[in-house]
Structures are given as C-alpha cells and as structure tokens.
Please model this.
Amino acid sequence: MTAAEARASFRSGLVTPTAGMAPGHTQANLIAVPADWAYDVLLFAQRNPKPCPVLDVTDAGVPHTALAPGADLRTDLPAYRVWVDGSLTAECPDASEFWRDDLVAVLIGCSFTFESALTAAGIPLRGSNVPMYVTNRSCRPTPRLRGPLVVSMRPIPAELVARAVEVTRLMPAVHGAPVHVGDPSELGITDLSRPDFGISVEIRPGEVPVFWACGVTPQAAVMASKPPFAITHAPGHMFITDALDTDYRI
Amino acid sequence: MTAAEARASFRSGLVTPTAGMAPGHTQANLIAVPADWAYDVLLFAQRNPKPCPVLDVTDAGVPHTALAPGADLRTDLPAYRVWVDGSLTAECPDASEFWRDDLVAVLIGCSFTFESALTAAGIPLRGSNVPMYVTNRSCRPTPRLRGPLVVSMRPIPAELVARAVEVTRLMPAVHGAPVHVGDPSELGITDLSRPDFGISVEIRPGEVPVFWACGVTPQAAVMASKPPFAITHAPGHMFITDALDTDYRI
Model:
C-alpha cells in the first residue's frame, strides 16, 4: 500500500493504527491550534526537540502540507482527537466538522519512521501499535505551554540495544536516539503493562525496554496547559506523508 | 580565552570577528524582533533549517539565554546591526540603547562552530573572518518573511572535500553538510573576491570553494521583507555561548 493509498483508505473511513503501513514513508504526529497559539507550539518544539521535531507547519487555514501534495489534513488521518480547554471532547475518523479557518497544523516527526531502519538493521519489532507512557520528566516550558515528556517503548534484545541506538541517532528529525534504556521506574513508569496510550507489548527474557521521546508529548502539553482549542491525531494513528524515511537520515 | 572572557571583552568594547575565538564553544547568530514577528522568524527557520538552525529563543523582554547563563544579549556580542523597516540604521558595539521590552531574541547556529572539528580532522582553514555571499536561491517563505539563501565559503583542498562533508554533516544544528561544492556561478556568485559580508579568502591551486548555508540568511530576509524593527549581530561578529561544539555533534 502506498502512502497515498493509505491516506485514501483513512479518508474513506478506515480507522487503524498506522505502525508498519506504507513502509518507507515518513509518518507524522499532528497538532493543530488556533493561529494565536501557533507560536507557543513552535517555541515548545524548539525547546524540546527530541519529542517535538517539527517536519512542517501549515499557514493558517490551509489544511495542506508540502510533505504530501494533494492530501487533506482534515480527513486523511485514521483518527483524530478534539480538545477544548485541555479536555478531550471528541475522537473521530474525520475532523472536517471541527476544523477552523484559523488553525495552524504542526506536523511532528514520529518514531514509526525509523522502524523500517531498525528492521533493516536486523532488530525485531513486535506489535500493531507501540506503547506510550507519560513520564516524570518535565519538558522545558514556554510561557503558555508546559507538560511532561511522553515516551514510546520498544523491547530490544540486549545484544542489539547498541545497534538500535546507532541506527536511530542518525534520524534526529524523527526523535533520534533513545532518551532512556532499561529501568522504567527511573522515568516514573510503574507498570509497563499499562501504557497511557497505545497497546502494551510483552518484554521477553533477554530483552531490555528502550524508550524514545514521543510526538504525543504536545498532546500531553495540551492536557496540562489547556489552550482553548486543538485538534490532534489519536495516538498511534498518524499522518502518512509522501516523504521517505531516508530523507530524514543524516 | 574562555567564552565568558570573550563576552566580557566585547562588553568592554572590543570589536572583532569571532572566528577562532574561545575554540570549542558554540557560536551563534542573533536576530531579535518584536514579539509579534517572532512567530514568523521561527516559522522561517523551520522552513529553512539548513541556514536557520535555532539553538535558543528567549522569552519577550528577556535578554538572557540558557546557552550562556549570566550573559547579556544586549552587550555581549562584539558588534550589532539595527534595522528599521528593513534598512540598516546603526552598527554599534552595544545594543542597549536600541533594545526594547518586546524583543524576542532568536539564536541561530553558526558554521564557526564546526571549524574546530574541521581543523581537528586535518582540514586547514584560513582567514580571520569568513566570506559570505547572497545567492540566487530563494528560501521557502512564510506569509511575512522571504529572502535569498546566504552562504559562507571556505576553500578546501580537493582531496579533503569529502572529509569536510563527513565532518560537518554530523553537525546539522550548525548548518550541517555543505549546500554546494565548486562552481560559484551556479549559486549566482559572479566574483568570489567580492563577498557580500565578511572578508574574501584566496582560492589557491588545488582548492575547491565549498559553500555552507549561513546564519546571516535571516538578516537577508529582514532586508527583503522589511519588518518594522530588528537587531542582529554584525556578520562574523557572533555571540559566543558556553555550549560546547561537541554538544551539537550527532
């Protein structure tokens, strides 16, 4: 399935996590906010580049991106979340009815993008989505946005952890090297089997939990900071761009 | 000379290009604009990451940066330029009298930062400043900011060009790999001996001119787009941070 075919299927109503879909194509987190909040989102991203690597920013009212000509950001993701004053008010497969002419859409790199590279390097991955956890680490705030770091976790065989670091460090635009390897309690995660987002994955004997900064972090900032309005992707249900994973490899 | 000592000497009135000063410490371009233009600068930077890698952004009215605690961005650069409606109205060693409470300062990576790495890799560099050229390439615009790509040029022995690429590609936060190697006419540069900024450097037999994206690009956007007010560094006269060059190496 190509990226365009995947987007067309979502536009037609398919709701599914996007891990592993249209392999080789860059996936992105979405956060769309009113124009008068767009500066805060960009500043928050600049101050927290590991969880929030910005891939593209639309002009206000324009639901299109240079990363996928012809795509419509209002319909071409499998699932959206709508936030009012920091509270989740809707989760839906089509955001058209909620879209506003003053929205600026910010597309943020997603770790699904480096999964092809990990697989190509001989690192096995499991699961149809990825588990994500809110950590005890605070992001560097802006005057109006603050919140915790969110991480994704993948179990990696101990002998391949270094290889996984080597592969992902060369892709800083899609979160880069892990932020943490091993002991989840150090991140304030008490139970790996109960992720805050996504689907839990078993850690098998000989595997180490490896944590990468996650593009759901801006959603956590929305929850904590309560901007008046935002539309985001649903965790794990990403925007699939036409850009190639290799475009983001150093 | 440490970074703090260099800043103190500039605060005391020393005016000099900063190439080679406080080696090992990251140098930065400065562009300070009124808060209502800060979004445009960040968006322009996001859309043009090679010339405009953002290292830090201050809150409005705060002339201090996390990259050099104790430093004052109004006084601690060797030379400033003051812009009104896109026209250069002053060049001065102290910007205090021009500073405004609504200014947001954006610090942008500088290729001086990778000069230590080039030298350590056995690549000889010459000159007390670097020549910079306005090219015929347009940056990707924002609704209010547009302008040409500016590049810096270093003559590199032909057999070391590949090595120079290898070294600098691992430092994307300070412009990364060159944008062009060889023929300057392709960039619209008709005479290498007459740079638009900085000091010309002779190309010796066996050397190739190598061009990196340059943090003076936002100044060129100011000239082209005429925001009502801006303060920048004078080309080649950078802000020397406490951050280490190696902090920006992948």
